[in-house]
C-alpha cells in the first residue's frame, strides 16, 4: 500500500534525524584480516580479560579469523577507537552505545541477555551497610558532608540514569552539591563503598551480583537505598562500515552462539562465565537505544531549565533544539508502532 510505503520511508528519514550528530561518513571496511573486539571498562582489565578471552577464542574459531581484544581506560576510549576503525565490534552499555552510533559509525546488531535468557537491569545507589542513610532525600540534605562515587560519564546505569531520575529534576550539580565527587567504574565504586572510601555511589544490580562473586567477604558491607526502573540490556555494536558479507557472518555467529552446533554447550558455559553470567545473544538494532535517547533528551531539558547562569533567551534557544529532537523521537516511535502493527496484521 502507498500509505504503508510512505510510513516506512518516514521511519527511515526520522531514524536518520535521530543520529544527525554523526561526524562524517563511515569509511568502508571491505577486508578484515584481524577482528578487533572492544570491551568497555566496567571492571579491572585483568578481570575483563579473564572473562572475555574464552569468548574471543571461540569467536575466532567460528568466524575463522584472528580476533583480538581492545581495552581502554574509559568508555570514551572504545568509542573513539570505533570512530577511527580500530574497533570492529564492541560490547557497550546503552549510553555508550548511543554515543558510538551517533559519533563513531556504530550500529547495534545484537543484545546481551542474562544467564537465564531474560533481559534488562537496574541502576542503583549504594551505601555502606552501617551507613545512617536510608533514602536519597537524606543524602541530598547532607550533601556538603558526603563523598559521592559517580560513574563513568558514558555509563548508562552509573551516570545517565541517576542524573535523569535523581539530580537533574532537583537542579543538582553533583560536583557542587556534594563535598567531593569522583568518577570510577562499577567495580571500583563497589569497593569504595564497601571500604567506606565514599559515602555513597552509583552502580547496577548486575555489577553487584558480580561483585558478590568476586568479593564475597565485602558483599555484606553494601546496601541499596535506591533502584531505577528497568533498563534495556547491553547492546553489541559493530562498525557500520563493515561489508554486508562481514555483517551477515558476524550476526550469524553471534545469534547461533550457545544455541546451535556441536559446541553449543561449551559456548553457553563461556557466556555464563562472563561477568554476572550471560545468556544467548538476541537480535537487535538501533531501536534498542530509544529508551536511553529519551532519558538523555529529558535530562538535557531539565538541565537547561534549571541552569542558574543562562538567560531566558539562551534557555529558549537551547530548549527549542532539544524539544525538536524530542518531537522527532516521538514521531519515530509512533510511526514505528504503526508500521509494526501493519506488518502484524499482514502476517496473520
Distance between the termini: 17 Å
Number of strands: 11
Radius of gyration: 21 Å
Mean pLDDT: 90
Spell the H/E element sequence. HEHEHEHEEHEHHEHEHHEEHHEHH
DSSP strand (E) fraction?
5-15%
- Amount of helix: 40-55%
Detail the poorly predicted runs.
Answer: none
Number of helices: 14
By secondary-structure content and strand pairing, the structural class works out as alpha/beta
Report the biggest beta sheet as strand number plus sense, adding barrel if it closes: 6 strands, mixed
Which outline best applies?
Answer: globular
How is the largest sheet built, in terms of strand order? 2-1-3-10-4-11
Question: Can you walk through the features of this model?
Answer:
With 348 residues, the chain is of the alpha/beta class. It is built from 14 helices and eleven strands. It has a six-stranded mixed sheet, with helices on both faces. A five-stranded mixed sheet has the order 7-6-8-5-9. Helix 3 (75-83) packs parallel to helix 4 (94-103). It is globular.
Amino acid at each position: 500500500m502507498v500509505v504503508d510505503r510512505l510510513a516506512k520511508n518516514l521511519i527511515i528519514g526520522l531514524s536518520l534525524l535521530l543520529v544527525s550528530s554523526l561526524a562524517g561518513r563511515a569509511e568502508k571496511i571491505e577486508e578484515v584480516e584481524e577482528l578487533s573486539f572492544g570491551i568497555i571498562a566496567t571492571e579491572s582489565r585483568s578481570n575483563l580479560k579473564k572473562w572475555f578471552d574464552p569468548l574471543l577464542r571461540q569467536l575466532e574459531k567460528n568466524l575463522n579469523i584472528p580476533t583480538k581484544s581492545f581495552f581502554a581506560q574509559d568508555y570514551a576510549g572504545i568509542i573513539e577507537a570505533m570512530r577511527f576503525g580500530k574497533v570492529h565490534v564492541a560490547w557497550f552499555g546503552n549510553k555508550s552505545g548511543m554515543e558510538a552510533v551517533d559519533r563513531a559509525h556504530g550500529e547495534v546488531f545484537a543484545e546481551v541477555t542474562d544467564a537465564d535468557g531474560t533481559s534488562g537491569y537496574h541502576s542503583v545507589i549504594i551505601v555502606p551497610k552501617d551507613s545512617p542513610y536510608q533514602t536519597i532525600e537524606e543524602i541530598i540534605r547532607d550533601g556538603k558532608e558526603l563523598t559521592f562515587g559517580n560513574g563513568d560519564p558514558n555509563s548508562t546505569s552509573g551516570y545517565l540514569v541517576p542524573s535523569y531520575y535523581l539530580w537533574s529534576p532537583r537542579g543538582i550539580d553533583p560536583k557542587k552539591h556534594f563535598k567531593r565527587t569522583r568518577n570510577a567504574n562499577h567495580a571500583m565504586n563497589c569497593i569504595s563503598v564497601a571500604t567506606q572510601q565514599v559515602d555513597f555511589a552509583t552502580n547496577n544490580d548486575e555489577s553487584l551480583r558480580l561483585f558478590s562473586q568476586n568479593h564475597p567477604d565485602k558483599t555484606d558491607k553494601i546496601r541499596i537505598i535506591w533502584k531505577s526502573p528497568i533498563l534495556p540490556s547491553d547492546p553489541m555494536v559493530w562498525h557500520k562500515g563493515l561489508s554486508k558479507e562481514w555483517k551477515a557472518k558476524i550476526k550469524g555467529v553471534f545469534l547461533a552462539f550457545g544455541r546451535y552446533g556441536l559446541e553449543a554447550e561449551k559456548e553457553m558455559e563461556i557466556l555464563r562465565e562472563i561477568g554476572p553470567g550471560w545468556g544467548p545473544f538476541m537480535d537487535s538494532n538501533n531501536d534498542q537505544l530509544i529508551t536511553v535517547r529519551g532519558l538523555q533528551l529529558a535530562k538535557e531539558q531539565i538541565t537547561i531549565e534549571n541552569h542558574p547562569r543562562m538567560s531566558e533567551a539562551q534557555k529558549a534557544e537551547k530548549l527549542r533544539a532539544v524539544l525538536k529532537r524530542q518531537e522527532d523521537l516521538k514521531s519515530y516511535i509512533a510511526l514505528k508502532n504503526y508500521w509494526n502493527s501493519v506488518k502484524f496484521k499482514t502476517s496473520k
